[in-house]
Amino acid sequence: MDSTDARAPHTPVPPPSPPRVHRRRNPPGATATRALGRWRPTPFFVFGGLFWIGVSLLALSVQACCDLGQHAAVVERLRASLLHPRHPAADLPGAGSPYYSPYALAEGVLARLFGLSGWETVRLAAPVNLLVVLLGLNAFVKRFTASRWASTVALALMVTLWGTEPLVWSGFAGLVSLPVVAGYPSTFALGLALLTWAYAAQLTDPERADPPSRWARGGLGALCGVLLLVHPVSGVAGVLGTAVLVLARVRGESGTPVPEASPEPARGVAEEPVRTGAGGPARHTPSTRSGAPARLRAPARLRARTTLRAWAAWWPVPLGAVLAALAWLPWFDVLALGAGSGVLDPPHAALYTGLLGHFWLLGLVALPAFALRLRRDPRDALAWMCAACVAVAGYAWASGHFTYGRVLGLAVLPAQVAVAVEVTRAGRGRALKGLAVVAAAGTGFAFAQSGAVLPEKWTPPQTRRLPEWASYAWAASSVRPGEPVLTDQREGVRSLPGFGIDTVAPVWPDPALPEKERRARWRATHRYLSGRAGAAERAEIARRYDIRWLLLSRWQRVPKEAKVLDFSRETGEVLARLPDRKGGAR
Fold first, then answer.
1. Beta bridge partners of 559
2. How far apart are CA 110 and CA 224, in angstroms?
3. What is the pTM of this model?
4. H or E element: which one contains 362?
C-alpha cells in the first residue's frame, strides 16, 4: 500500500492555491519609447513644416514695403496709448478705426512688455500667423476626406493654383504674396477663418452621434465675432462660409422615412415583411399589387418644416457673434467699414483689373471638381461656400464698394480644397485628374509665383518678384514721432507712419477719417507740391494741417521757405523743414 492510501479518508484536501500573478512594471520611459515608435509623421507634418520654415525666413528677409508701415504704425500708436490710440497715419483721433482690433491690441501689449518697435512686432508676427494658417488648412481639409495626402496637396495648390498674373495683396495666399503679407492681420484672419470653418464642419458632421450643445454652437458664433473684429473684410467671407456650411449640412429630421400612405393598407394593397438587418425583426410596409414596396418619404411640407426647425436650433451662432462684436465697441464699430470707405474706393478697384489673368488656372480645374461634387451631393458645402463669396465680390464691384472684393482671397480656398480632395480621391480617372492639376499648378508656379523662390535667370521675364523698397530710417532719424510730414511719394507716405510719424493725407480709407476730408487732404497735398501754388497759399495749407516737414522727390522743387536737412543717396528724395509761423526755425 502506498503512503497515500494510509491517509484518513475524512481528511479534506485543501484546494490548490491560485497561481501568483507577477505584474511586470515597465521601466521609466518604456511606454514613451513604445509610443514614439508607433508615431509616424504625416506628409503634411513634414512638408508643412518645411513650408513654414521657408516662408517664415522669406517673410523675415523681405524689406519694409507695402502696408507693413501701416500695421507697424498701429502698433506704435497702441504702444503710446492702449485705450485711446490716435489715427494710424494722421494727426487725428483714432476712435472708430478698424485697425484697432483684438489682434492689434495683443501686438501692442507685447510690444510694450518686451520693448519692441512696430516694425519688429509685425515682422515677428509672420511665423505665428503662418502657423495658424497651416493648422487651419489641415483641420479644414480633414473634415472632407480621410486621405493622408489631401492636406499637403491643398497646401501646394493654395500657393500655386491661381493664374498667370500674381496678385500681391493683403489676404491673398499666393507664393509671391504670402511672404509680404505674412505679418498682417489678414493672414491671421485667413487661418482663423479656416479654423472656424473646420469647427463648423465638425459640429455639422452628418455622422455625428449627438447634436452639438448650445455652448458649442455659441462658441462657433463667438469665433465668427472675433473673426469680424480681427479683419472685417475677411470676417465677412468667414462668417458667410460658416453660414453656408450650417445651411448645407444641417438637414434636420427630413431624412427619416415616413410612410406617405395611411397605417391601414388600402384595398388591393398587402403588407410585405421587410428585414431591418441581419437577424433583425421584420416590419411590414405597404405594398402595391405588383409587389414593389411603397416609397417611404416625408411630405415636402413636413421636410421643409423640420429643416427650418433644425436651422433655427443654431440661434446661438448669431447671438455669440453679435455679443463678441458688441464687446469691442469702445475701439470701433465693425459695421462702419463699408460706410467709411465711401461709394467709390479707387485703391481697391485695382482688385478687379485683370481678374481673368489672376484666377483662370484655378477656374479651369475647380469648375470640373465642383461639378463632380455637386453631382454626388447638390448641397455640397465647398461649392456653395465659393459661390457665396464670389457673389459678395460681384456685389462689391456692382455697388462700388470695392473694399469687399478682398473676399476673393478666401473664396479661392474652398475651390483649392475641393480640387485637392478630388485629386486624392480613389476612383477612375484619378491619374488623369492629377495630371491636369499638376499641369495647371505648374503653369501658375512658373509664370506667376516662381519669382518668390527662384533666381531671376531661372524665371520668365514677366514673372513678378518680391518687392524691394528703400528704408526711410534716414528720414525718421530727423523727424520726431507725431510730427506731420507732407509728401505724395508712394513709398514714403506708406512707410513713415511705421516710425510713429504722421502724414497729411493717409493712403487708405478709414472710418476714423471721413472720406471727404481724406480726399480734401490729398488735393491740398498735390496743390502744395505742384509748383503752381503761391507763397500765401502754401502758408495757408501748412497752417491748416500744421505741416512741419516736406518729403520731396528728386524732381520736385524745394519751396523758398523750406530748408533742406537731409537726402537719400538711394532714392534721391529730399527731407526739408518748414519754419514756424513766426518766421523762426522749429
1. none
2. 24
3. 0.81
4. helix 355-376
